[in-house]
Amino acid sequence: MFIPTTFATALVMTILSTIFWGSFANAFKFMKNYRFELYYWDYALGIFITSIVLALTMGTIPGGENTFIANLQVADTTSFIYAAIGGFIFNIANVLLIAGIEMVGLAIAFPIAIGIALVEGVVLSYLLQPKGNAVLLGAGVIMAVVAVILIGKAYSELKGAGDKDKAKDNQTTSKKGVVICIISGLLMGTFAPFVTKAMTSEHPLTPYTVGVFFTLGALISCFFFLTYLMKKPFNGKPVSFSEYTSASMSNHLLGFLGGSLWCVGTVFNFVAASLVGVAISYAIGQASPMVASIWGVFVWHEFRGSNSKAKIYLTGMFISYILALLLISMAYSG
To answer: Are 143 and 327 in contact (CB under 8 A)?
Structure first.
């Protein structure tokens, strides 16, 4: 089983986690006229299947007493439950996040939802596993909150477009999207403590085993929450499973790719946490809004036509997230 033995290796894994977490949603952005409620089924399959592949490769080779199969036999039953509950809660939050992306864009949805989740998740995880310098960790979290505030200010500076009725409709949709992102963040911040419990019990799960049961919990939640959203969506008309089965292969593959990217980022984050602690690993990984905003601003042009104030706020957001990353990295005490 591969586990980092130095902080440098763990840091690289958390940075890669940040990149994957900040990029997975682009798979959905590439789709045209395809509802996220349908996309998400392939996404959920992607995260679960990828977690099994990682568990049977990185989590098994070159062997040892903590391989994936061996861990299944000796770990506490409650640890499996904690990991699955964490995934179940996370998935609801993530569905809401993707709904928010559809309504307000990558550059807005990610910083709001992930910023809230960052503060909540780090505080709760640190209380359960106080590993690292609390002052530096707290300072990093504060800088992340500053970044969230700045992206909100940038959003407020965006120019309206179209006639008054259309502008009013867009404003209503945007407000609804922001509320959805806030709820997503509050829920997402609660999954990290469950992962912490699963990895710190008397007979804990390895990061790879956590990944499998975490994604299993996420997949199970789809049969409840996602099925409900298909019948009562936030926007548009209800969708049916027949629309999913008749979708193009490219849409199915993009959904699976999005899930695979997210899963690799998640497992890497869990693996790094085995050395540095969940609070630090989670906090660094949650700098993903910076990556998502780069995609949103420079690739998807979500701030095209914005004024100079919006650009200043965006620049400040990037600087704040970089400072947050540096401070949280320095919080590791070995």
So the answer is: yes
For the chain, the C-alpha Rg in angstroms (whole number) is: 19
Rounded CA separation 112/193 (Å): 20
Check: CB of residue 107 under 8 Å from CB of residue 302.
Answer: yes
Q: With helix as H, strand as E and coil as C, how does 138-201 read?
A: HHHHHHHHHHHHHHHHHHHCCCCCCCHHHHHHHHHHHHHHHHHHHHHHHHHCCHHHHHHHHHHC
Q: What is the pTM of this model?
A: 0.86
Is residue 84 a contact partner of residue 216, using CB atoms and an 8 Å limit? yes
| Dihedral pair phi/psi, residue 143, rounded to 5° | -65, -35
Question: Reduced to 3 DSSP states, what percent helix, strand and coil does the chain have, rounded to the nearest 5?
Answer: 80, 0, 20
Domain definitions of the chain by residue range: 7-330
SS3 (DSSP) at 59: coil
Q: How would you write the pLDDT of the chain (334 residues) with one tens digit per residue? A: 999 999 899 989 998 998 998 898 889 888 888 888 999 999 999 999 999 999 999 999 888 888 999 999 999 999 999 999 999 999 999 889 878 877 877 667 777 887 788 888 888 889 988 988 999 999 988 998 788 778 777 766 765 434 444 444 444 557 888 889 899 999 998 988 899 999 998 999 999 999 999 999 999 999 999 999 999 988 789 999 999 999 999 999 999 999 999 999 999 999 999 999 888 898 888 777 778 778 878 888 877 777 888 889 889 988 998 898 788 888 886 5
Among candidates 331, 78, 53, 62, which has minimal Cα distance to 215? Answer: 53
Token pair of 174, please?
């945007």
The end-to-end CA distance of the chain, in Å, is 21
Which helix or strand (DSSP H or E) is residue 253 part of? Answer: helix 249-276
